[in-house]
Amino acid sequence: NLSAPRDLGAAEENMFLQAYAAGLVMHQMAGFDRERLKRELLPDGFEPGTMIAIGYPGDPDALPEKQRERERQPRRRRPLSELVFGSAWSEPASFV
User: Fold this and answer.
1) Per-position DSSP letters for 51-78, written without gaps between them
2) Distance of alpha carbon 32 from alpha carbon 38, whole angstroms
3) Residue 93's pLDDT band (boundaries 50, 70, 90)?
4) What pTM value is reported for the model?
5) What are the residues whose beta carbons fall under 8 Å from the beta carbon of 30, sequence distance 6 or more?
6) Cα–Cα dist 75/73, whole Å
7) Is the dihedral of CA 77, 15, 1, 50 positive or negative?
8) Cα-based torsion angle of the residue sequence 68, 74, 79, 84 in order, rounded to the nearest 10 degrees
């Protein structure tokens, strides 16, 4: 199924949005043991595309100091002009 990666990405985004709206947090992981997951949890014929942890946010006071400080910092996002390009790579699209 050549569209499976795209469909998986769309499903993940919807899950993230719904989790956030419900006061939950999600963390997507790339560094997991795919072969072990297949062997122990998945029926034959399935391939793991991702692994996601979902739960309620923890108490920042329970974190080590360095992580606690980072957790309390305001979130910063790169401007769209650095991410969305128009007619040439690294040329910002006119609508951003």
Assistant:
1) EEEEE----GGGS-HHHHHHHHSPP---
2) 11
3) very high
4) 0.67
5) 50
6) 6
7) positive
8) 60
Cα-Cα end-to-end distance for the chain: 34
| 92 Cβ neighbours under 8 A, 6+ residues apart | 80, 81, 82, 84, 85, 86
Residue 75 carries which side chain, given as an amino acid letter? R
CA atoms within 13 A on the CB side of 46: 13
In angstroms, how far is CA 27 from the centroid of its own chain?
6
Locate the domains of the chain by residue range: 1-57, 60-96
At 93, list the tokens. 């699209």
